[in-house]
Amino acid sequence: MTEQPAGGGAPTPAAEIAAGPEVLEGRIRGLQFALGQLLENARQHTRGEHQRAVQLHRQLQAETMAARRESRGLVEAATTEALADAEPAARLLADRLAPGLASIPPNDARWRSRQLVGAGTPSYVRVGQLQAGTPVVAPLLRTNGWKVTADRNESARRLLQSTALRLIAAAEPFRLRIDAFDPRLTGMMGLLGHLTTKYPQLVPRATHTAEQLHTVLSGLVDVSSMRASRQAQLGHKHFEDLVRETGRVTDPYRLIVLFDYPNGIDQLAQRDLVRLAATGADRGICFLVHHDPAKSGEHDIDARELLELLQPVAIANEKVELSHLPNVPAELDPPFDANIAAKICDVVAELAEIAVLPTIDFNQTLPDRSTWWRPVTDEISTVIGYDDRTPALVRLRSGNPALPHVLVGGAVGQGKSNLLLVLIHGLAARYHPADLEMYLLDFKHGVEFSALGPAGEREHWLPQVRVLGVHSDRAFGLAVLRHLSDELVRRSEIFKSHGNVADIAELPAGDDRPPRILAVLDEFQVLLEEDDELAEEASRLLERLVRLGRAYGVHVVLATQTIEGVKKLSSKRDSIFGQVPYRIALKTTPADSQAILRTGNSAAAELQFRGEAVLNANFGSPDDNQHVLVSFADKVVLNDLRRELWLKSGSTRPPRIFHLAEPARLVDTAAAVQPELGRPWIGLPIAVTEEPATLEVQPEPGAGVLVFGDGPADALGVLTGLAVSAAAAAAVPPRFIFLDGTDSAPAVAEGKGALIQTLRLLGCEVETADKHEDVVRRLFSLRDAVRDGQIGGTTYLLGFGLHAVPKMQTHADGFYESPANALQDIVRGGAGQGLITLGWWNRMHVCTQQLGFDRGSVATHVFLRHPQDGVRAVAGSLMRWTPEPHRALVWDGSGAQVVVPFAPLRVDEVDRYVELVRR
Question: pTM of the entire structure?
Answer without folding.
Answer: 0.71
